[in-house]
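Customer ticket, subject: "Can you confirm the structure for 25S rRNA (Cytosine-C(5))-methyltransferase rcm1?"

Message body: Hello, I'm evaluating your service for our small team and ran a test protein. I'd like someone to confirm that this is what the system normally returns, since I don't have a reference to compare against.
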Amino acid sequence: MSLYHEAAGILDAASKESGSLKSLVFGKKTWKSDQKTLFALTSEAAKWSAVLSEVVEKSGILKTEKQLTPTLALVLSHDLLLSKRGVALPQKHGLNLTISRSKARLTSELTKARIRRGFATIDGLRQAINNPETSAQGESGDQKPIVRHPRWIRVNAIKSSLEKQLQTTFSDYVQVESLSKLSGGQTKSIYLDPHIPNLVAIVQNTDIMRSKAYRTGELILQDKASCFPAYLLDPRPDEGLVIDACAAPGNKTTHVAAILSERASNEDGDSLGVIACEKNPARSQTLEKMVKIAGGDSIISIKAKQDFTKLDPESAISGEVTALLLDPSCSGSGIVGRDESTVDVHLPSASASESSQQSKKRKRSNPAKIKPETIEDSSQEDPTLEEQPMPAEEDGVKLQARLSALSSFQLRIIEHAMSFPAAKRITYSTCSVHPEENEHVVMKALASSIAAERGWRIMRRDQQVDGMRRWHIRGWKAACELGQNILDDANICDDAETIADACIRCDKLSEDGTMGFFVAGFVRDAAQNGDHVNQRKKPEEKIDHDGDDAEEWAGFDD
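Agent reply: Thanks for trying us out. I re-ran your input and got the following:
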């Protein structure tokens, strides 16, 4: 049966950090097994892998059952020992016979592993594995706190309110004061985010997608970091139009619309409008679906198959655009797979077996290599996903080439946005941890000719909305200092330290519960082109740098 072989191949790929389980399973359409069954098996086996790898190793079956690979033994032992239905194979099937004749040894080792972890029952161990936010007792008896990525949920202000959801969907949830206390043994617990309005967090494995509020678009699954761009943009209904330049799948687009909608009802604003551009046809369909579910049809105008860089800034409609949200394609290096989050896949090793007998070298079947599909493909399977992580690059030269190509495109997007004549604010974001796509792009944009011509500068920290001003992780100062000479050459008054402090970062898999993310804002205070006295230094203030500094900056260029 292909289920266990395919599951083994997926776990092999996941253990090499080539993508989240969800992208590996649902990003491919040629599986012989049912995708939901395949995902359930791989995600459960991944959660239990730390225990099961130990069980498989100590049982010694990898030495006696030569046809089993480590990952195949892992998924088979999961169903044999932990699944209510057992191994999903006929009793006389070769794999079933192989794993079943080792059931006594495997069961014995599972009991030992449970006792070593301080649990009296298998249900107690299961609860700890399913809720790793709680403290788990290690073999030494020490309490080891485990931090797990929460499930972030944005209350959609177009259709509902936080107060209403707390009284309905989350009425039986217990509010906690910190992410670290999100579970604490209480599965139905909820955390109200202090930085982003209408954002809450719940335990990752809570099945909120079955709720009526989720199905009707009142609740939207969106990582906290992904909410930063729209909130930082601070769109105002009485100013003009907003453009989301790279809109699919639509979470940030509908967030902008929700902010405008809420402010219009509170401030009696007359002008509402978001223009959502998406050049990819398939992703345009996903965008349309998300906008409809969120109830944003009357606010959002979707420009399907529209390349933002080909929009004419001098057109009549472009003249009404005052804010732009830019979240272009990036390396995805900051993405946390929503399905496995902080779970690492632990694979058993035959060499770690208690058996002292040396086995002969043997060939093992090599599970097919799994390559995650493109961002466009994966988004069709689950429109709640933002982006998927790009495959890990083993070759540093290839990685740098890809980052260079991405950063060139990202800079072009910003420069085009800066050319819109009525624009006042821009936010630029990536789900990347690489400075080449983040601080470096921001520095180049500030030093560009269009920024000088139109009077664009960095949105300083003291100019940011309250939640973003209070956010504690800022840009990388060292990455900005590397480009100090380009600031001086462009006569920019803001120094590297000021720009780094203006940039916002989120760390991947930190105690903040976010993915890796970067966002920066640009503002244009000048009423007329070229009126940017406070932006640039006077010519005599320009600082000359020696050849060494120029050489250092050369590595920063595309």
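A couple of notes from the result: The chain has a mean pLDDT of 81. The first strand starts at residue 136 and ends at 137. Feel free to reply with more questions.
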